[in-house]
Fold this protein.
Amino acid sequence: MSPIEKLHQQETARDAALARLVATAPFVGFLGVEMQRHGDELTGRLRFDPKLIGSPVLPALHGGAIGAFLEITAILNLAWRQIWEALEAGDAAAAAIHEGRLPALPKTVDITIDYLRAGRARDVFARAMITKQGRRVSNIRVEAWQEERGRPMASAHGHFLLRGVGEGS
Amino acid sequence: MSSDTLPTNGVDSAESQALFDEIRAGGAPRLEQIRPIQIAFCEALGMRLLATGDGEAMMATPHRPELVGDPETDVIHGGVITTLLDTAAGLAAAFAKGAPPGLATLDLRIDYMRPAEPGQVIFAKARCFRRARQITFMRAVAFNETEDKAIAVAVGAFMHGGKVDQGERGKQGGDA
């Protein structure tokens, strides 16, 4: 295999693993959450849908939908980090991932959501930053925005329990 | 009990308990008989308001396959719990006697205690913890059977009246 073919295969495997990860939980698809990858960085996107409305006054998005989107972005970012590191290491965990067996999703211990601005009838974007990656627990921050990255509409931080390949809940 | 006459004398009243028992026994089909809330996202999830009181609200949400978080355990996604607690707390704050119209969630913290029972209706009770002039502090619990076996507990601060920032994130207190 040529070096270019090898790189292409690597990118395809990463895309496949990410797609499988996002498709794991039915609720993620129901809510309409997508993950866009730039290298190892993910940006979450909550596509606007009338079913996400909380109040018809503005109309404004439901705070629960926004909170769920932030939580999902956090969990998928953490799981993606686990998958990425495994793929890079090329170990047994990587082999499992290539076969479609992903590590169990991280579990939320606690999450605090700050509502900063009303969510409008548009797509919402979110990025997560792992503040502290422990062996078992991660502390992660998420920010969400719509039209202006510099004026976030919500942010969240929380603790998540990490789980390995083949581990039950 | 008529599906259109919801208890309004608090989440711990005998009437509220009776309705809770009915839904616990009847499951999702019984829950569906309750009048829907006029909040689009709650409707999409099948969420219902069951009882209210002075600064109190009891709600429930059914198990549906598209709302599952882990297909191996069939447990409902945490985001549904977040929505249930956020809505219950917001409606409860709006139902507080003398509360001005217009309500915005400032923050909401959720602690996850144990997984929800797969296939079971999830209930939530929200109560006002402290009512100040502009801010109301709420507490809410999500559970399947009893509050002391909580799925999640939440605390939140809500601001009454006026604009928070470029328009209110209003919750429809009176329309539920």
Summary: DSSP finds four helices and eight strands in chain A.
